[in-house]
Each structure stands twice: as C-alpha cells, then as structure tokens.
Amino acid sequence: MSHSAEPRPMTSRRCGPLTGEALVPGDKSISHRALILGAMAVGETRITGLLEGQDVLDTARAMAAFGAQVTQNGPGDWSVHGVGVGGFRSPEGVIDCGNSGTGVRLIMGAMATTPITATFTGDASLSRRPMARVTDPLAQFGARITTREGGRLPITIEGAQDPVPVTYRTPVASAQIKSAILLAGLNVPGDTVVIESEATRDHSERMLAGFGAEVTTETTPEAHRITLKGRPELRPQPVAVPRDPSSAAFPVAAALIVPGSEIRVPGVSRNPTRDGLYVTLQEMGADITFENTREEGGEPVADLVVRYGPLKGVSVPADRAASMIDEFPILSVIASFAEGATVMNGVSELRVKESDRIDAMARGLEANGVTVEETPDSMTVHGMAHVPGGGRAVTHLDHRIAMSFLILGLATENPVTIDDAGPITTSFPDFVPLMTRLGGDLS
Ligand code: S3P
To answer: pTM (2 decimals)?
Structure first.
C-alpha cells in the first residue's frame, strides 16, 4: 500500500549502554519469496516467522489478487494455498506494491509467462526506480510490456501465451533481476539461465530447490551461471523464516557505537551472500561473536553477541558490495565513530534504492558534523571521536535511511532528528519499541 500518511518526525538522543536481547523481525527477502513460491505451489505452504512489514503485506495481498488463498493464523504464522505454476488468474484491480522493489520485480517475473494481464503501481519512491532491468528480460520470454516513460511504474504486463526459455546475463549485480527471471522461467518449457558476474543473495535458488524445482549453480572465476528447469510441479513446504541480518544491523550498530553496550541478537541468517557487513565490521575490529551456528529453513543461522569497543576505518572492496548492499547506510553511521576513513567502493547501485542512498547519507551526515566524500560509485566517511549531531536528516521515503539516522543520534553529542519515521514499518515495524527496550532514547 502506498505510504500516504502525514510525515512523522522523530528524534533520538544520546543514551546509556544498550543491553539485552534484540529479537529482530523475519528476513524480508525470504518472506517475499515464501509467499510467491507458496502461491505457485499446489496445496498449503505454512510460513512461520514471516516479516509482517508493509512491503511483505503488500506482496501477500498481491498473491491473493492473483488467485492464491493467503491467511494469517497468528503473529508471523501464515498459510498460502497456491494455484500451481501457470495457475495465476488476472487480478481485478491494479497491483499496488507500495514501497517494495523486491515485491514488484519478483511478482512481475512470476506472472510474465502466464497468459494473463496485470497492472502494477507503487508509491512515489518506487515510481522513481528503474524497472527496465526486469521488464527487458521478461519481454524476451514473450511478455508484452507497457511502461511509463523511462521504464518506470505504472507498468502493464500481458503475460506470454507461448513463453520461450531465455539465457540472460545481468548487467548489474541484482538478486531482484535474477529472481524475476527465475520465477518467469518456472512456467516455460526448457531451461532458463541467468549469468551474473558477482554472486547475489541466493534465497530464490535455495527456496526453489526446497519446493522441488531443479536449479543448479555453476561458479567459475568469471561468473555464476544459474540454470532452472522449467515447468516443475512445486511442492508446498513449511518455511521457517530466519531473522533478517539487514534489520539486525541496526541494533548491532547501536551496540558498537554506544559506550558500554552489550547485546544479543538471536537466530540471524548468516547466509554468505548476505554477510558482507559482518565481515567488514570484524575487519574494523568490532567485538562480535557468533554462537550456536545452525541451519534453519535451509539457511545458516547464528546468535550474535555484540559489545562496544574501538573501531578503525577500512576500505570495503567493490566485490563485497552485493553481499551488503542494504547495509551501507548503517555502515556509514558506524564509520562516523571509527578512527580514520572508511571507503565504500563499487556502490553505484545505492543510487537507485528506495532513495539515492549515497546522497541521503552524505547530506544527513554532513548536517550532523561528519565529513563525507562521494563519487558516482563510492562514498568515504571520515570518522571522529565525538560526532556533534544536532542536525536534521531527510529520509526520502526510505526506511533504512530513517533507521540509520535514529541510530546515529543514540551516540552523538546532540540529538538527531529525522523528517519522517513512517517508512520504517516497511521492513521493521517493531524498530522503535525494540530499540527503546534495549535502552535507546527515541521519541
Ligand atoms: C533484494 C535484493 C537487493 C536488495 C533488496 C532485496 C532481494 O536488491 O537491495 O533490499 O530480496 O532480492 P537488488 O537486487 O536491486 O540489488
């Protein structure tokens, strides 16, 4: 649903040590995929630990509009009675994906090879984001696609009558492009192949295999080649969604920058394709330990124990960007408190997220006394012993920008204000109460 409420400003203030347990919500990427694959399987898929953020609720509503029966049994506990591969019906109304790039791109993929028609829209942020990266490969399957100027939403897709298999090399490292193509490939006779030069999050591949599809990944020094055999019968699966490492990053960051803190974050996904922030933080000297490493729902999971301590700036290599693409805003906050400069390389994709995240972080950090340099695809943050704060950050309908600046204010000399906390509900509805329970001062 498009975010249309009045802006809700919020302020965070310097606080004492953060302590306790942070139960962060279910993984957003896995939650979207569980609903979509559940809708494409025949029978009941039971999902536990589903993120009940607005982005995922919008995907649940979309799956119902395409004919699946989606019901909530209790908090985080959902059932999807799917219609099978190729079983989607034309929705009666427009599909509003709200703020969610993952939602709209994956759902467009899932329906593009079924002979039905659907129109997609979204909020002001989503309507600015590039969609040709997905509609171009979907057109190769035989779908007929009409977009607003510049390949933007609203978009109408007439799904292919006789879809043909596609082999596609992704022009940018993007799990959303890869996943849209693989989901489209489900209703196509023959093999669909995606070639990516950097590995991106592999939740779609893991979950497709879990639902019984034949999907293989070949890795060479140059590329990852993912092959999906079309027209499988997807078998419904119980999906236990692990906690989201991208959401965990916010309390983790707070514990690293607020003196004396020690927190525990249980059950967080440690999927290696999502692990870049944690690798980087360890290089910066962060005191993070991983306990009870185990497997849950086909994903590696661990309990994180995080303690405050001195940090030093590092250079983050470009080939790590895909594995921490959503974590650069919060890394730039942590880097503000490190000794020396932190350089983030190969991050041009940040410019087409829910906002231009390089610009949003640079302007907001500058307003709070931090020196930042940017190029089209890099950002450098100069750390300081005492970050002044006292500024206002503009969040541009971007949940991660909003949460990053609220975390900043917990450790700055003066309070930090954001213009709008509303978008936080897209991925982390419990963020403010959770941070408050740990000892944070947000109001
Ligand atoms: C996601 C992929 C990433 C990420 C987004 C979730 C996914 O986007 O930023 O939050 O679930 O596939 P890109 O594929 O555009 O990099």
So the answer is: 0.97
